[in-house]
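Continuing the batch. This is chain 6 of the set; chains 1 through 5 are on the previous pages. Same settings as before, nothing changed between runs. Recording input and output for traceability.
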Amino acid sequence: MKKILMVLAFASVSVAGMAQDEPTQKFSVATNSFWSNWFVQANLVGTSFYNDGESYRGLLKDYRTNLGASVAIGKWFTPGLGLRTKVNGIWGRTVISEDAETNANKYWTANEQVLFNLSNMFCGYNPDRIWNFIPYFGGSVSRNMSYDQYAMGLNFGILNTFKVSRKLAVNLDLAFGGHETDFDGAHFTRDGKRWNLEQKDRTVSVEVGLTYNLGKGTFDKVPDVDAIKALMQSEIDGLNDQLRAAGEENDRLNNIIKNHKCPEAKTVTVKEVAVAPVSVFFNIGKSKVASKKDLVNVKNLAEAAKANDKTIVVTGYADAKTGSAAFNQKLSEKRANTVKAELVKMGVDASKIEVVAKGGVKILKPASYDRRATVEIK
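Output for chain 6:
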């Protein structure tokens, strides 16, 4: 028995020493439903008994130690806080003498424990973390079946879990427990009277087993509301800039019409409208047109170019803040060719279209406005 407990203790230290934690990015999580984040555990337990009337030294001696088992079910309410109900026992050796047979008895202990996952509390929630460090404390009710005795108790310990997969983990539990004085069932007769031995039993346990996560065993990341608002505001600002540019262009054309004395002023105005560059926007890393509405102005420009036998220049861009220079160069070329293909669909001769790729640039703010292709008449 001594050798078994020594092997368990040595294995626990070795495994804990080898456990490497993953780098963690902190973020908020959403609270799951009641039926999520449940787990079950099964363990092999080595337990050593001693009482408060003796020294705790010599815990590995055979007259006070025995193997047992434990099973548990629990739930994590947050990444850092959980509850666990655990039953352990079967065989034990409460210390009445230094004889293993005299001390032997059968018992069980039902524990209700509060779990604190300090790894998640201090390092941030990470569902892929290899090692979780989880102290706990709780109360217990025990029954010594050999002596038909019940006793209340307290316990605390450290649960270590080592991730195998999202569903399965190896757990190492180091626990300490205390019982009321009547747990060991030992009685003495003095002057014809029976009285309990006024010594409280203590237990030190090492448990090794498995944890299995039931159903959904992770917590969802809370959407970053500020980032969503910033993105929406960026899009609104972009639309406002387009409206402002359109208004300025309209004023410029009105001035041309107002000040032009040529009888063909209206015809010239139509040509000038077509000359204004048109932008077609794309999503990050994509070469597919983000909104078909952008192609409406392109079509107007294409009609003007065809009517006047003009060449169209399509220039592709990417934002320099994302992607490598080589990637952005190819991306800008793909964007320009996408718009060229749309122009061909509109009836523009491919020989009348020039394609230019500018690669990653820093022209507009925010950077998302640089994810575009411009179309203009040469």
